[in-house]
Structure formats: C-alpha cells, structure tokens
Design brief:
The protein is an alpha/beta fold and 337 residues long. The protein is 42% helix and 17% strand.
C-alpha cells in the first residue's frame, strides 16, 4: 500500500523532513492522480523492496520544494505537463538524471535540457471528425486553417494548458508571424466560441454543431469505455492520423525529475528506471489511455484503440519555453473572445 493521501500530504512532508533518510525508501511528490500511480508504485515496492512515500498535491509542488530548501525530503517529482516539469528545472530544484538506461531508452526530444527531466508517458492532441460527415482519414494541423472548415471547427479555450502547449509547439516550429496568422484562421473557422472540455467537442460533433475538433487522445479512450451518454459521443467520432506538415504528432507528457537535494538519489533513479520499464509502462499507460515511451511496449490500450504514435521531434523543452509567447498571441488575436 502506498503511504500517502491528499489530506495527509502536509503532515507526511513534515514527518519526512524530521526523519532520517532510509536506504530502502524513496519520497515522491506528484500532481498525478493517486489512482493512476498507485498500481505502479505498489508494483515497484513489491519488485524492489523499496518503500515509496508519496505526497499527492493538486498544485503548489514547485513552491513547496523551493520552500523546503536543502532539507526537502523530495527525491522524485512527477508532473503532468511539460510546462510544469520544465518550470522545476528553470527554478533550479532539479538535478541531472544520470542513467544509461534512460539515455538509451528515451530520445533526447523527450528529455529535458541537461537531462533535468524525462518523459514517462505521452498523450497526443489529435483531430477528430464526424464519422458520418467527414470521409478523410488523415490531416495535418496546418489543414485546420483551411477555410473549408469555416463554421465547422470546435475547440476548447485557446488559453487552456492543452491548447497552449499545442500553440507553443506550432510557434517553436513556425515562428511568431506564421503562428499569429494560423490562430486568426482557426478563430475564423470556429462553429462556436472556444470553450468547454475536450469531451464536449465530441458531444458537439454528435449534435451536428461542428464536424471537426481537437482532442487529447486519452479522452477518446475514456469515452470508449463510458457507460453513459459519452459512449454515444465516442461512437459519433472518427480519430484522424494527425501530424504537422513534414513532422509528427504533437504530444504532451507526464514526466519525472530528481530533486536537487534528494536524500535517496539512488532509489530515485531506480524508481524512474522502473517506471520506464515494460511492466510499469504497460500499467501506467493503460491506466489512462496514454502512450508509453518505451519502444518495446507495443500493445498498450492507446495503441490498440488509436494506432501507433510518431511524436513530433520538436524538443519539448523548446515547447515549454514558447508557452508564454503562445499565450500572448492567443490574447492578441482575441482567440477566446
């Protein structure tokens, strides 16, 4: 059993700071949902004998580690967004992950600058269309700006982190001028004001309000297993193979870093390496229909439902650095107005 809950996070952190480090333990701070992580953490403890003390935080992880300073008990920090994990590195609260296994398994584009963090799983942002009204099977992100989609395109708010990361990736690839033009074209094509959630764009395709939309892949997986009206939303849509022109598919990630003052560094490396192994990748990725990053894991739930993923090669560190500029462009064109 993993020894943490959201309610006891502060008390646990205090206890960890007061107690001496144990050779066979590792302290994890994370913004990930407990239900997604616990099966992997329990498997890690069973297979290695290393106890995991997990602190699940809704927000404020970076601020907590910084406030704890040199006495922080944090060994591993696990985040659910490339901007969040890169912010930890920028804040100087991480250290390089020195692991031959990580270097061999994970391409440089999915690791932070100076190996300050490493991707654990990926979720793609792809295009879905009406199964009845749109017949094509593939599309580029650039094609969404085509005027033929005028009044037919749905998207959640441009300032939402999912879209902010996508627009930052577009900006990293194409520069500010082309990105501004792209945002204006997308805005001109919307069927309704940007907003709602990713599952709601599938709902709106079913209702006929729009024919094409952007969505994170794990929502497609979750809707496919729904026992309510969302199963009908899933049945109405068709995922398209979606890439940048002359590139791959945009992904966001869950990622891990080792804390600068980790008291159990060796155990921290072992936990990260374990989470990148085939057993843990299957458990972790299948828990939320995310794509594994270990290339030896071929038959994840996401792959079975959506096919193989070819991530774009734009370094995720570059995407993270462009997020503020992308947000400024979204405001400049009045995307969410």
């Amino acid at each position: 059993m993993i020894h943490a809950t959201r309610l006891s996070a502060l008390a646990l952190a205090s206890c960890l700071m007061a107690a001496p480090a144990l050779a066979q333990s590792v302290n994890l701070y994370t913004t990930r949902e407990p239900a997604l992580l616990n099966p992997v953490l329990e498997s890690f403890t069973k297979d290695t004998g290393i106890k995991v003390n997990a602190v699940f935080l809704k927000d404020g992880l970076q601020e907590r580690v910084a406030a704890e300073g040199a006495n922080s008990p944090a060994d591993v920090m696990l985040m659910v967004d490339v901007g969040q994990i890169n912010a930890l590195a920028d804040a100087g609260v991480t250290q390089p992950i020195k692991s031959a296994m990580v270097e061999k398994t994970i391409p440089a584009a999915l690791r932070g600058p100076g190996d300050s963090w490493v991707t654990l799983t990926q979720r793609a942002r792809i295009v879905i269309v009406s199964k009845e009204r749109v017949k094509q099977d593939a599309i580029t992100y650039e094609d969404l700006a085509d005027p033929k989609w005028k009044g037919r395109f749905c998207i959640r708010a441009g300032q939402h982190p999912y879209n902010n990361a996508f627009f930052a990736a577009y900006l990293a690839r194409n520069g500010a001028e082309k990105t501004e033009t792209y945002l204006k074209a997308l805005k001109a094509n919307v069927a309704r004001k940007p907003g709602g959630g990713d599952r709601e764009v599938a709902r709106d395709i079913l209702s006929g309000q729009c024919d094409i939309a952007l969505i994170n892949t794990y929502y497609i997986g979750l809707m496919s297993q729904a026992k309510n009206e969302q199963k009908g939303w899933f049945d109405a849509i068709k995922p398209l193979k979606t890439t940048f022109a002359n590139g791959g598919t945009h992904v966001n990630v869950s990622a891990a870093a080792i804390a600068k003052n980790a008291p159990n560094r060796d155990s921290a490396v072992k936990l990260i390496e374990y989470m990148l192994g085939e057993k843990a990748q299957t458990l972790y990725a299948d828990g939320n229909f995310e794509f594994p990053v270990n290339p030896d894991v071929k038959e994840s739930a996401a792959v079975k439902l959506l096919g193989t993923l070819t991530p774009d090669t734009t370094p995720l560190g570059d995407v993270a650095k462009n997020r503020k500029a992308a947000a400024d462009l979204v405001d400049k064109v009045g995307f969410d107005n």
